[in-house]
Amino acid sequence: MDRRRKDSLTGIPTADYFAALAQAARQELADQGQPLSVLFFDMNGMKLFNSLFGYEEGDRLLQAVAQMLCRRFGAERVCRVGQDHFAAFCGDADIDTLLPHLYQEAAALNGGRTLPIHVGIYRDVPEDVTPLAAVDRAKMACDMLAATYASGSRCFDTSLLAAADHRNYILEHLDQALSEGWIQAYFQPIIRSANGCICDEEALTRWIDPDKGLLSPAEFIPALEETGLIYKLDLYMVDQALAAMKKKAECGVHIVPVSVNISRADFAACDVVEEIERRVAAAGVRRDLLNVEITESAVTENPQYMRTQIDRLRAMGYKVWMDDFGSGYSSLDLLQTFDFDLIKFDMTFLRQFHTGPKSRIILAQLMKMALKLGVDTVVEGVETEEHVRFLRGIGCDKLQGMYFRRPIPLSEVIQRSRDQDDLRFENPLEADYYCAVGTANLSDPAFVDSKPTEAIRPFLHSVPMAILELRDGHTSLLRCNNAYGELLELRSGAALPELDICDVKLPRQPDAQMIAAAEQCRAEERWITVRHSKQHADGITLHSMLRRLAVNPVTDAVAVIVVVIAGL
């Protein structure tokens, strides 16, 4: 075979030579009563394979795949299209016989160090479609399997042509959509669990096309990522977020940090860190008002490079969030390798909330781990009051989802703020205070005391716990666990309001010893023990241990964590 017709790595035909071979074989297959069919092959997960085992091992796998295809289809009926992609042609009747054996053989390639194989099929290629066009259409079918890890196949159908036309429309009209304002930023609030206020917002993309109407992000973002054009959209959204902050300031609306999403493809297209910095500097906006969200999958492809970029952003003063945590396979390792300011838990956790206890147990333990690492947390997909109550109980600091509000345009954000609707913006000066209140783990008081004394150590498990706030001589309940709520109801004889409500008025004010100890906590950062003057109905005298959690710099209120113990 002429070297120009042979792939240098695998030795099989190139795509152009393959096209000539397939065209010549049309008539031969027709004489046998079989129309020409074309298949496209993709090794699923090749980038990760190379990262784990090295490129030499990856090349050996590709060579093994090429030889397998030659054995199954014939040495002059296959080609390497590029990277980890191959193509083959055969008679239509042969496909159903060949594929089961091919999957089985692929699973044993390269000594078992292999990958699943995805196959796109274009059956009965008509005369007016060239072999290379048939390969493209088979690839369209193969791409539909991208989210499936196991080996499998998909046949091309005419609906995929419509999808291809839509994709081409997106790519051809992106610049026009950006310049003419078809693409807009919508803002969804992120709620502080401890006070119910908007503490952050996420800028989300909406494409409102004059011809096609509202386009879902799922319709255009994948196409922009695949073609490397997503950086144009992402930097445009940075501009929109900065402009929104300036507009809110002009309208007298509280400004909270806004998070923007950055794609992994952005880092290959430009120095996206420098591009963000240039825009923020030109806008005159504080860096800590722009949060940069990077998906979990984005940092796995080139971890060393991505760590450098994340460190650059954080050193400049930007907060970097890991988006979609829990949607991939390397989450825990990433927490060890990268320094993130916040973890955004993927909404899949709450989608499985009612299917059984597993998602709740996993989420609660992951939340505890994040807090111990000193990383802030937000959970996406909050849709019910039960979600809110559970997440507040396990110490999740921030909540996001349709339960609070759908994404809305800036004009509506400003109008709702003027109308003083049900959601109000957090005073930034109080953010640290309510973060401390919201992230307190009320099943484990040790989080506020990394080196507990022997006096408190026996009482750090499964005891009534609460966070009380003392302000202007009055005491209110900010949060409590179920054990503390039951104790209050027992002592007061009155049921408490729903425990997910912030700032609950107590049925009765604490006794004088309790208030004095709480005031002492304001000045002293240590555990203080209180022996209450009244006995429990069973003759047990209750003791409380208190420790300062935080002081509100605006109101001078002090939040105190209370652990109730009993003694004779």
Any guess at the CATH architecture of the largest domain?
Answer: Alpha-Beta Barrel
Strand content: 15-25%
Q: Report mean pLDDT, rounded to a whole number.
A: 86
Considering DSSP H and I runs of 4 or more, what fraction of the residues is helical? Answer: 40-55%
What can you tell me about this protein's structure?
The chain is of the alpha/beta class and 568 residues long. The protein folds into three domains: 154 residues, Reverse transcriptase/Diguanylate cyclase domain (Alpha-Beta Plaits); 259 residues, Alpha-Beta Barrel (TIM Barrel); 128 residues, Beta-Lactamase, CATH 3.30.450. The strands form three sheets. The protein has an eight-stranded mixed beta barrel with strand order 6-7-9-10-11-12-13-14, surrounded by four helices. A six-stranded antiparallel sheet has the order 18-17-16-21-20-19. Strand 10, helix 11 and strand 11 form a beta-alpha-beta unit. Helix 3 packs antiparallel against helix 4, helix 6 crosses helix 7 and helix 8 runs parallel beside helix 10. The longest helix has 22 residues. The N and C termini lie far apart (94 Å). The model has no long low-confidence stretch (mean pLDDT 86).
